[in-house]
Specification:
Keywords: Acyltransferase, Transferase
Distance between the termini: 37 Å
Largest sheet: 5 strands, mixed
Helix content: 25-40%
Structural class: alpha+beta
Protein name: GNAT family N-acetyltransferase
CATH architecture: 3-Layer(aba) Sandwich
Radius of gyration: 15 Å
Shape: globular
Organism: Lysobacter panacisoli
CATH superfamily: Gcn5-related N-acetyltransferase (GNAT)
Strand order of the largest sheet: 1-2-3-4-5
Order of helices and strands: EHHEEEHEH
Number of helices: 4
InterPro entries: Acyl_CoA_acyltransferase (IPR016181), Bact_Acetyltransf (IPR050832), GNAT_dom (IPR000182)
């Protein structure tokens, strides 16, 4: 994993994650700042694969996983339409700048259009200025601030 010789937009392959990809998914989630074990990643892949409103896609170059995106779709009462939320997007540092993130977003947009989605949302931590600049370059607009509360009690 992480070997990205001859990286380029045309060289990247985007496909649905499978159970056998659990090690790669765990590594990529760790790179994004959400570490998990291979077994935990396998459980997450299984949940996504059995839910038609969720998708987990891997980007590969020469058979090596170098990026992933996860999304789910839902009906928004507020907006009166289907919307999609990208819940995770990561491209390994050595693979950045080669169009892989754009390819992942294009695939998400294609899936969303086929599902009747009219709006896509992405949340980005305020410290991830590089990611925010990337989203803006891809046509995404700053919109709202998100508030969270962990229910770990």
């Amino acid at each position: 994993m992480g070997r990205v010789a001859g990286t380029g937009e045309a060289a990247a392959r985007i496909r649905a994650a499978e159970l056998g990809d659990a090690s790669d998914v765990a590594f990529l989630l760790g790179e994004l700042g959400y570490p998990c074990t291979r077994d935990e990643a396998a459980e997450r892949i299984a949940v996504v694969r059995h839910d038609p409103r969720q998708h987990l896609l891997l980007a590969e170059v020469e058979g090596d996983a170098c990026g992933l995106v996860s999304l789910y779709t839902l009906y928004s009462v507020v907006h009166g339409c289907e919307l999609a939320r990208i819940t995770g997007l990561v491209v390994l540092p050595d693979s950045q700048g080669h169009g892989i993130g754009r390819r992942l977003l294009k695939e998400v947009e294609s899936i969303s259009r086929r599902s009747g989605v009219r709006r896509i949302e992405i949340t980005s931590n305020s410290s991830r200025t590089g990611a925010q600049a990337f989203y803006r370059r891809c046509g995404y607009l700053d919109d709202a601030m998100r508030f969270i509360k962990a229910l770990g009690d």
